[in-house]
TrEMBL record:
Coiled-coil regions listed: none
Organism of provenance: Aquimarina litoralis
PROSITE patterns, per database record: CARRIER
All copies of domain Carrier, residue ranges: 1-79
Protein name: Acyl carrier protein
């Protein structure tokens, strides 16, 4: 699966949780850039992403995620495992 395909599915997960599409996602995007992306919705987004890709993130991976690029890197890593 290409990085663009992964990003598209991640965006769909964000839309499902946040219930709006008023944002752009790039590797540098953080919670500060997306309206409604707060601590509670963050965990909901992570859960939605795990369901979407049928993966489970490791706690250390979650703790080291600082932006969408880190999230995409973790997804790629889990899909290759």
């Amino acid at each position: 699966m290409s990085r663009e395909d992964i990003l598209s599915k991640v965006r769909t997960a964000f839309i499902a949780v946040l219930e709006h599409e008023n944002f752009q996602l790039s590797d540098e995007t953080t919670a500060n850039d997306v309206d409604g992306w707060e601590s509670i919705t963050h965990m909901m987004i992570i859960t939605e992403v795990e369901k979407t890709f049928n993966i489970k993130f490791k706690l250390m991976d979650l703790m080291n995620m600082n932006n969408v690029g880190d999230l995409l890197n973790c997804i790629e890593s889990e899909l290759q495992a």
